Amino acid sequence: MNFTIGIFDPITALAGGAGAPAGKKAPGFHGKVAWTMPINSTTKFYGSATFISQKQNFDTGPTTAYSYNGTGFDVFAKIDVEDFEAFAYYYHGSGLGTTGLFIRSADDLGDTRDSDGFLVQATYKVAR
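The chain above was modelled as a monomer; its predicted structure follows.
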């Protein structure tokens, strides 16, 4: 099993809501855990999970400011059994962005945008 965690310099949101991005007050955090587990000589399982979190601060005028936390996670699992392989992937984000990290991550009222998605696939290798 492998585990990593990182603390990174905050990323400024682009077009993330009304007002101008304010100075960052805290770093961002990211982590991942991954493992591979041989079940027997022809079967192997692989799994991973990641997370990210960062606070965004906005200043909309002399007396108004707002902030939100951009958070997200994903999970991935794959199994190989001889010539058969199947995997499943899912992600969820809130306040992370629509087309890139922290790009349009909130609307003009400061409400975070959510994103979800998944992919499932199975393959079988045919011998010639």
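The longest strand covers residues 43-59.
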